[in-house]
Amino acid sequence: MYLLIFSICSAFIISALFLYRYGNIPRQHPLVTVSVLVAWSFSFLIVFTIPLDITATVYRQCLKENNVTESNSTSEFCQKPWGMVSEEVFPNLWRIIYWSSQFLTWLIMPLMQSYLKAGDFNMQGKFKSALIDNAIYYGTYLFICGFLLIYIALKPGVTLDWQKLKAIASSASNTWGLFLLVLLLGYALVEVPRSLYNNSKPGYTLQQAYFKLSKLSSDKAEAEETAEDVLESLQSLNIIIPSHHQSRSYVDEILKKVPTELMEKAKRSVRAGDGGSGIPSEKALIRLHRQVIKSLQVLQRTEALWNVQVEKILYLEDVEMNYLSSPPFRHELSRPSTCNPMLQWYWECVVKSPFLKILAGATALMSVMVVWSEVTFFSAHPVLSIFANILNVAKHNYDFVTIEIFSMATLCYLCYCAYSTIFRIKFLNLYYLAPHHQTNEHSLIFSGMLLCRLTPPMCLNFLGLMHMDSHIIKVRLMETFYTQIMGHMDVLGIIANGFNIYFPMVMLAVCAATWFSLGSRILNALGFQQFMANDEISSELVQEGRDLMVREKRKRQRNESALSRRRDLASRDSNTNTAATNFRGLLREGGSGIGYNTNGNSDELSPDYSRSLSQEINARFGLSTDETLSPKRKNRMQKWFILTLFVAVIAQQSSAATCRFFFDQFFGYTCELNGVEVTTENENLVINTDNHVEGQNDTTVMGFRVGDAILRFFPNGILQQFPNMYYLILVNSGLTALTPGAFNGGVNLGVVTISQSEITTIPAGVFDPLVNLGVLDLSNNRITEIHEDAFMNNENLLDLEINDNMIERIPGTLFRSQRRLENLGLYNNRISVIEDGAFSQLESLVIFYLRDNRLTELRTEMFGEELPTLVFFNLNNNLLTSVPRLPTRAPSLKYIYLIGNYIEEINVGDFTFAYSNITNIELSDNLLSVLSGEPFEVLESLDTLRIERNRINSIDNELFDRVPSLYTFYMDGNSCASVRFNNIRSIDQDQIIQDSLDHCFYNFFEPQVTAVCNFVEDESFGYTCEVSDLTFFTFRDKFAFSGTHMPGRSDADVTGIRVLSGSMVRVPPSIFRTFPALTSASLQNLDISVVERNTFIECGRLSFLDMSSNRVQRLVQRSFENCYYLEELILDNNRIAEVQPCGIFLLNIYQTRRISMLNNVCVNTVLYNYYDSWLIDDLDLFVNPYFNRCYSLFFMFLDQQQTN
């Protein structure tokens, strides 16, 4: 009994391990996991228990031959085998296994496979599609069965009963399985020994791996192309199907399955006008859904297999390298090792090859025995089957241990040959068992079906080899329980005659075809390349794989080098943290400086926006333009500048220059130029590089910045001396002019910052050599004119900043080459003229700043027909007198800011079709006197409307009815004389936020809520208030605490609050007012849906905030304002789908070291490159796509190698 239990456990464990290796259990359907696990377990269980059944049969035969009953089994010959079970166990076990397997393989799994493949959007539709998909499959079987039954029924002298029908069904199943077995065994019996022998030859496995990598590269490219085509079709439907259409929910369901980065790529490929005009049918959406699922699965699998194959080749190359060296085992790239290097070297370089050759010889001998026995097992007299002879000898001696071991070894080898072929089969790229959790559900089910159909006939074939099947040898003998229940190796009567002739012939034919590689040769001829030694095509693919691997290794080496430099810097250089602290202090200093508010006053309600990369570089490397710099620091900078000039004069202004080389945390190995002044054009400057950091040289320099050097002109020679430079930072360098040819040799430059200098013009062609330039910052100069061909050759620009200059005119062709530009900054200039077509080519533009200029109008002709990706448009502080005319289509536009203009009225038709998807409109500080609802009717998605500090004395009573989507409404600083109370009551109190209305509505909702505190000493929070059953409904709810303090404690001692249960749709600021020393707050599982601005206005000391497992859907501007000391913010497991705009909620929490937003939606985030993120140590955002897009520009410039 113990052996049977051990066999059952072993079969289950092996099946579970295989399922873990190939499947992705957490993501796949539970029914798939259970059904495949059962199918595989039963298949392995049959293999493990057949030897026990054979032993029991031999034992029963011994008892019968010696006339001994089992109740008195004391014969000296018939010793009961160890692990013997009662006679009732095996019949019941075989019945359960056989019929469960047949039920799974012929009914459940085909239906399940079709169900999972269906693209319908509900369970009923999926099941219906599965039935239709299987109708032909089942119909074919029913037709054949019906034909056979009619044939048998009409045949004279033949009667049908249940037993005969079962026999016919069993024979049909056996016939199918035996032909499958012939193919699999005929291939594996030759291929297993050959593959072991080939793997023992040094270099063969590596060549084969290169070949597979080349094929994987083609598969990967094809998968990417297919996915792009399918997602472009999806994006086209996403454009043409409106939000109110009944099919919209289907499209949204499909979109949920697509990674954000892939969808963004599809959006850039599909223009908003290319979607077509017809709404697709539900069947078309179902078909597209099915295509999306399949293409994404194939793409994910090929990418994962590519990485796995690369890792395998890296290891094989290490083995090849170690053959020529002495122990221990060494790796070319730094790789984690789980084995002792000395043992690993002896195994790979000494032991493995002979061991595999011995194993190849043993398996070859076993294969010869199997083939011989397969050819001869029909011969009963004489017995020619080798296995039958060995079993007969053991039976004659009643050696049950030998019988069990020999049967188990033989059957396990047959099982390995057949099953390994199944697990490696790749059927037209539809069914493919890929390791490392990359097998899809359809392939798992397909393999389960094959095993269920293959295992019973394989075991019957094994019993035939052993001459344990009476129907084969035509001799009456005691049958095994297996043949009693599952039948014999019978085939359909139509092909039964001559089966013992053609079965061996087919087996031999398949073995011969495998030996001569006929299958591979045929596939090669048909264009399906297979690896074959000394084949020209295989050699080319091997070389291609080797070239791919060289590029992959270079990329990994560069990445390792960059990571190593950053780790070294983090461990050795503490200046970064000091700089970061000072940097945060600059952000928080007084209100007289130039802040990030549109009107320069932190008290105003206009939103803050994160700075561009250029401004961050200014703050890190240059003399800041922020007026909050102390006079002492300015004086020190001036004295240092004078001292530098004096030293230069003493040195007779020699052109010899020195660099201070160091590792910068973000720009890599950097040169800081000192000790030189360049005052003439085309001066050739050679930098003394004797002081390189150990192991570094000119070719590894990634960043260049100016220290105390003065560069009136950019000198020749620098870019040639440092050919791989990626970052060129010329902040406060003294540049007065840019001359053509100054940047020759800068083909690798990706980031160029030339700010806080004296440049007045940008001539044509000056940036032409910088073909890979991604970020260009020309801010804080004195530029008055830019030639229309200045950026003609910079097609890869993503971020262009020309802020804080004196530009008055934008030529119509200035940006004609910037189709990839995403961020354009032209604020704080003197622009009054924009020629037609100036922005018409900016088809990838996302962020656009035109604030603080002298524009009086904007016309559609300036933008062309469409700006498909524009999300954010800032026109604050211009001279506009009416709502600007935007391009005909701007489908992505969400935010438009018109603060501080001269708009007097908003008329019907001002908000054209381009505004249809707008969510935020800022109209504060204008001259509006009347607010009518009719012009806003077309704004179906309007979320936030701000009209503070206008002259409004009348609001249309139907405004809020006409704009049902309105969520936030600000109107402070208006007279509101004619606004009646029912204007606001028409909106559901939980829909519109009342935190900024003036005295007309200020105390609209003020119910009192009282909560009872249980005061405790908490290990993490300190003296803590724990509250249960806390319920709020509106933002204006007043809040009070009650409860008995611990002795000697008061409200001023409370440092933590933990709400254990309740429902808080919103969090009122008054909840924190009672405890002024609060540092920690836990607000989990409370159904919080919105975090409004000023929510935490009373939490000036809060350092830890956990709001996980709520229903937060958005983070609005200044959600966490006043949380200056917040160090850890946890927002996991919410429904965050939008941040207004991306990163703004981070702007006022300078001390934060960890932000966690795992498991959110985040699909509607404004795409803004927020660069202050480097102040945060830990961003746990990888499960959701939020920062993937927002930070793409920033991370692209951290290291040149990362752009790959």
TrEMBL record:
Coiled coil: 213-240
InterPro entries: GPCR-associated_LMBR1, Leu-rich_rpt, Leu-rich_rpt_typical-subtyp, LMBR1-like_membr_prot, LRR_5, LRR_dom_sf
Keyword Nucleotide-binding: no
Region Disordered, residue ranges: 552-576
GO CC list: membrane
Alphabetical keyword list: Coiled coil, Leucine-rich repeat, Membrane, Repeat, Transmembrane, Transmembrane helix
Compartment list: Membrane
Keyword Amino-acid biosynthesis appears in the UniProt entry: no
Protein topology in the membrane: Multi-pass membrane protein
Pfam families named in the record: LMBR1, LRR_5, LRR_8
Annotated transmembrane regions: 5-23, 30-50, 136-154, 174-192, 355-372, 401-423, 443-465, 501-523, 640-663
Family the UniProt entry places it in: Belongs to the LIMR family.
Protein name listed in UniProt: CLUMA_CG002223, isoform A
